[in-house]
User: Fold these one by one.
Assistant:
Number 1:
Amino acid sequence: MKVTEHIKKANGKTLFSFEIIPPKKGNNIEELYNNIDPLMEFNPPFIDVTTSREEYVYIDKGNDLLERKITRMRPGTVGICAAIKHKYNVDTIPHILCGGFTKEETEYVLVDCHYLGIQNVMALRGDSMKHQQYFKATEGGHTYAKELVTQMNDLNKGKYLHEVVETNYKTDFCIGVAGYPEKHLEAPSLQTDLHRLKEKIDAGADYVVTQMFFDNQKYFDFVKAARKLGINVPIIPGIKPLAVQKHLQLLPQVFKIDLPEPLITAIEKCKTNADVRQVGVEWAIQQSKELLQAGVPVLHYYSMGKSSNIQQIATAIF
Ligand code: FAD
């Protein structure tokens, strides 16, 4: 079922969902299942599976020589979506990226999704590669998520690339896109970024999932500003419980988001990462309670592999 249909069917009740990361290649899928198993009692109607683009790896050739290879360390997003869908009978949402993929490759992935009965896809630009300062489109690929949304929406109209296929048979993807309550790090202003978000919706996106935020007011203001611009689709808040001390520096640096003073103070008082994890859980519970009260359609959690903290939060909320 589509995300928008799940939300409609819930009839105002807030749903629980989460995002997982495929294992590094060479690992099996059991550990992932072990992390998903405890979360299934909270009845997520859908689970997101992230995609990582290619990266450089360095292979030690001996004699102080390193060979540089380019590879995808966490492949298998669509395969994992199919495996989870089959095992738990839950909808799964593959994240589809512009970066690292040509339009043709994207079309093949979408065709696979369609055959597998995957009805929801998340359209994302992806980040620059680690050695690049700015995002550079892959040759033959898209530059912005909006173009990816257009390609998905074209398939929904039966329009394939290069017009080699003429068909009345259409896909019916429900398309999600990213939104940034504190603006995307490259955007010159929040308002400009909101206009870009509107362009993604106008291109055919059906719902928005937000970047993590730690101050709910940022989300409430974002939703208000989005509505003012005519963005009327569901805006699902993304919540990440802080888990390690170094998140204090890392999250503002990587995502250009602010952390509230009381949260910083509480984390700084922690002696171990177990203490930090607990503070992160408690903060996320407070955030979730307030968002629940505000009637958000879904509470969506970034699990980053280990789910015990999400389980604690879900137990307190759902
Ligand atoms: P876009 O919407 O294309 O926007 C990127 C930037 O370009 C913004 O600053 C925007 O304002 C600007 N822009 C847009 N259109 C134009 C234009 N026409 N002209 C000039 N500027 C423009 N990353 C992954 O690698 N894998 C994942 O699985 C993944 N999942 C994510 C899930 C969520 C919910 C979120 C919020 C992010 C996720 N990301 C993921 C991170 C995402 O790929 C990055 O934040 C990326 O830098 C931007 O992606 P986007 O889809 O928002 O890009």
Note: The first helix runs from residue 3 to 10.
Number 2:
Amino acid sequence: MKLDNNSWWKEGVFYQIYPSSFADSNSDGIGDLPGIISKLPYLENLGIDAIWLSPIYPSPMADFGYDVAHYCDIDPIFGTMDDFNDLLKKAHEKGIKIILDLVFNHTSHLHPWFLESRSSRNNPKRDWYIWADPLKGKRPPNNWQSVFGGKAWEWDQSTGQFYLHSFAREQPDLNWRNPEVRKALFEVIRFWLTKGVDGFRLDVVNYFLKDEKLRSNPWKPGLRPYDMQHHFHDKDQPETPLLMKEIRQVVDEFPGRMTVGEVDSRDLKKIALYYGTEDGLHLNFNFNFLEQPWNPGKFQSAVLGWEKILKEKGWPAYTLSNHDVPRHMSRYGNCPERARIAAAMLLSLRGTPFLYYGEEIGMQQVRLPRHQIKDPVGRRYWPFHPGRDGSRTPMQWDESPNAGFTAGNPWLPVSPNYQYINCNQQEKDTGSLLNFYRDLIACRKKSEALRRGSIRFLKDKPEGVLAYERTTAREKVLIFLNFLPEKIELTPPAARSYTTLFTRPDRPAKLQKGKLFLPPHSLIFLKC
Ligand code: NOJ
């Protein structure tokens, strides 16, 4: 089934690849583009429609690619521009779209723009970044803190000013209020879209603009200094959503492309501001969803709350794992049964599902000893925060050394459980999590209601069950997910007839004489 060119980003299944950790073709221990190309048949078989590649641009890797030193090139550790063109071509041949990660809040401190900017106060690019004079006693211009810890201002001895970095000091913030900066970044968008890239994930969009007067944030109680402030002035400025409209205009010069914003906020109303069916970002992540405990009621409230705010105007995007948070397999107790229910939920809610590499085989969070930690967050906050490496460990392909990820020395350790959690083993096992994901995605592909239907939660159901219906003019599907390790019986709404679209073959849920019998951690999609 081919997805419509204008709505593929609503109906398709996205798969996030963290390039350093997916597949290494040249044995340097770091995943690369030829490695990803070699795994396209696997991804095609899984049934995904689009790949989101975390950054692949030249970078000194202070934040593992989220510190970009050149926006229109490929870091040699990942390959060459020819490799990228090849990936794009081969993915497209398989009907798989590719979206790139645009890191536009900041560049690397080694980006030529920043090198120029810091070279002198009179440099024409001085105003491309956010520079400010010290307060009396060489104190920073205000109280802003870096998300990664410490002050958000770095002193530049040679020019006698501070520059702003919302993240690491190697990631100076761009000044989006400067029209030349906008122009240059819009050209980056055009560069990749001209190549044929299908869209972008936009890093921390709500940080792009800051208070023009650089006013200090008010303090509040919190754990780390960053959490001890109301972020009134260093992010979420009223003009930022307007900036998204400008970005959208550029993207719309190329039909059929999409954008998904990372809005670092838990305030649903604020996240919604970045949306626009016609003139804002197509999708935005809402991380409230992935922060829910293993409780169907909590997921229901999270979805309902979001539906209410987005109304008709926006299409939700859901994810349970990414490169910044612990893998959901482990957050929910390393229980493969729960992983099946979580997958069924993610792939049947109204919204675009984003999978994170390895979740389809149940990869777990890895605990690293301090000396193996690479992530700047972990290096600063260990053991209080072990950092994000634990969800970025190499993909577990098979039971050969290093899980078949590399013939070299992997840049992050491979999980010790790869001998029994890997793709090769799960390929062979019809009851595996991998095959469960495949069947689920195939089922979603065939059902118009699952892909684009409206959603309504069923009120009359036992506590451990999440139950909803997805409806289009032509199709209605009821979804029942048993979150508990015990069997549950319920009475589904009356219907003329029911057909089972999907259930676990090893634990089939059954409809008998108007009653639905759900074995422990089972599920059923009923078409009526
Ligand atoms: C959000 C990205 O997801 C994260 O990995 C990165 O460290 C920060 N933005 C800074 O770019």
Note: The mean pLDDT is 97.
